Amino acid sequence: MLRYVTTNPGKVREAESYLADGSVSQLDFDYAEIQAAELAPIAARGAREAYREAGGPVLVDDAGLFVETLDGFPGPYSSYVEDTLGIDRVWEIARDLEDRRAAFRCTLAYCDGAGFAASPDPVDRGDRVAAAAAGPDDAGSDGTPGPDGTGSETERAEPLPVKLFEGYVPGRIVAPRGDGGFGYDPIFEHDGETFAEMDTERKNAVSHRGRALEKFAEWYADR
Ligand code: ITT
């Protein structure tokens, strides 16, 4: 069974309509999020860690809000910023900007321990040089587990391949409106409505996560 790796029930609600009943379940697992300017390496590394935890196929969902005139802030730090500042203060910061364009991005990272045939969606093969240089302990955190879950040193220096599916939606930051959704939804407007004013079906039809899940579901049906 595929495990959808997240601590956020809002993401699971949105993912459910793309993934066949009974074929997926939530894995409430808080993988370590490395610091990076982009979502893909964070999600890929999280998928390797979650695969080792689950011992079977996993799908990690990493998302963020990128405000254009703040050079993409909070981006990969969206979770930290929501927890510390909160969305009302993010709105207060954005309110004074002349240009409040922003985008949500979502990266889904899939790992099942095997390799991937070529397809348009990218594969993260990890940074083998850095993994090898970091030595067996750190390389082990990215490496291929052997039958006993540890692997030989050579195996551990070869990170597992992770397939990536990306989704994006443009919009702008507005004063909070709406009661639905989660996270930054009340301050993100797309086509005249905030995501918190849309029900799950309508948000999915246009959202970063909906786009990424659509690509994943089509690919996964053949796997
Ligand atoms: P997991 O890492 O356990 O999946 P999380 O909520 O921390 O849960 P992310 O790191 O991907 O997930 O999310 C970064 C932040 O962006 C976090 O504050 C979320 O609430 C928010 N976020 C993610 N997707 C969102 C969406 O579709 N609408 C609104 N906010 C979203």
Mean residue pLDDT:
88
Integer count of domains: 1
- In oligomeric terms, what are we looking at? single chain
Helix tally equals 9
Helix content: 25-40%
What string gives the helices and strands in order?
Answer: EHEHEHHEEHHHEEEHH
CATH structural architecture: Alpha-Beta Complex
According to CATH, what is the class? Alpha Beta
Biggest beta sheet attributes: 8 strands, mixed
N- and C-termini, Cα separation: 13 Å
Radius of gyration: 18 Å
Tell me the total number of β-strands.
Answer: 8
| Low-pLDDT residue intervals, each spanning 5 or more residues | 137-155
Strand content: 15-25%
CATH topology: Maf protein
Identify the overall geometry. globular
Structural class: alpha+beta
Bound molecules: inosine 5'-triphosphate
Kindly describe this structure.
The protein has 223 residues and is of the alpha+beta class. The chain has one domain (2-220): Maf protein, CATH 3.90.950.10. The chain is built from nine helices and eight strands. Strands 1, 2, 3, 4, 5, 6, 7 and 8 form an eight-stranded mixed sheet that branches. The longest helix has 16 residues, at 39-54. The chain starts with a strand and ends with a helix. The structure holds inosine 5'-triphosphate.
